[in-house]
Design goal:
It contains 15 helices and no strands. It has 310 residues and is an all-alpha fold. The chain is globular, with a radius of gyration of 19 Å.
């Protein structure tokens, strides 16, 4: 329960920053369109700094085993989410946007600052495993659902700035190349902006959303409940059944980095892709906003379930 309380405090802080983003738009100081500038800064500058900096740890065979373990967990978690989205699609009549909401989470924005706060900076690198797997699926499975075509956009995958940052960080780790103090400190300082920027962006997007309609549309709660409650519970039950927390000495902590990603709200990238392919962007945005708001309650609850079962 202590971890749940810490998580609740961290999410509460991030939620207050979200309210600040909402306020600056409502007061007319900025517009929702201005959030694109912050989005560029966060995606192309802040997040890569966090990723590269997270790999600046001493090379250790145990860390390598932990990374491989995290990748295996990430692949397993995504396989389960893909399966659940397919199983629920027909009985619940899930549309394409709802299926994407079930599978893809906003891990890139929320998980890294939460992992750092709950487990320490040394565990941030393990959270990159989930991001790699998700990026590959976003530009294959998610893209094919939204635009109705098959195949992989390898250029989008390989040239994705987060994937490039992971490759650089992993290379420095494997080659045991420490960054100079000034550069490392710069990356660390810049990376500390990730959580605040992400929640400011969310607040600015929410400011233009019709919240009354958002909360009063019953259908919205179907996909959001699957994303925030049903899938996390089934995921932790699978982890418990397989006993994966005991596979490594610090298996439970590494498992939590993956589980935090699994319980995050809907992925903002789905909304961007829906806009790009003209495939239900307004619907995707509504589910993103609603799941983000409700995650303030559900994420601590799901971590409590995790802590109780594992």
């Amino acid at each position: 329960m202590q971890i749940s309380l810490i998580l609740l405090q961290e999410i509460a802080r991030l939620f207050l920053i979200l309210l600040m983003g909402w306020a600056v738009v409502k007061l007319g100081l900025l517009t929702t369109a201005d959030s694109r500038v912050l989005s560029v800064v966060m995606v192309y500058l802040v997040t890569p700094c966090v990723i590269i900096d997270s790999f600046q740890v001493d090379y250790d065979p145990q860390v390598v085993r932990g990374l491989l373990f995290a990748f295996a967990l990430a692949v397993g978690a995504h396989a389960l989410l893909l399966l659940l989205s397919r199983l629920f699609a027909r009985p619940l009549r899930l549309d394409v946007i709802e299926r994407c909401t079930v599978v893809y989470t906003n891990a890139g924005i929320l998980v890294i600052p939460l992992v750092e706060a709950l487990l320490g900076a040394e565990y941030v690198m393990y959270s990159c495993a989930f991001m790699v797997v998700q990026q590959v699926l976003i530009w294959t499975h998610c893209r094919s659902l939204l635009c109705g075509t098959q195949g992989m956009d390898w250029k989008k995958i390989v040239c994705n700035v987060n994937i490039v940052a992971i490759a650089i960080g992993a290379a420095l780790f494997v080659l045991r190349v420490p960054l100079p103090t000034v550069i490392g400190g710069t990356l660390s300082t810049t990376g500390s902006l990730l959580g605040p920027l992400g929640m400011l962006l969310s607040g600015m997007v929410i400011a233009d959303a019709p919240l009354g309609e958002l909360f009063l549309t019953p259908r919205n709660y179907v996909a959001v409940a699957l994303r925030l409650l049903v899938c996390p519970v089934l995921t932790v039950l699978l982890f418990r059944a397989l006993g994966v927390a005991g596979w490594l000495a610090d298996g439970k902590a590494i498992l939590m980095t993956v589980y935090l990603a699994c319980i995050s709200p809907a992925c903002a990238t789905v909304t961007s892709l829906a806009q790009l392919y003209d495939s239900g962007a307004a619907r995707a945005s509504a589910l993103y906003v609603l799941s983000t708001l409700l995650s303030v309650v559900t994420m601590p609850l799901m971590i409590g379930v995790f802590d109780m079962l594992l």
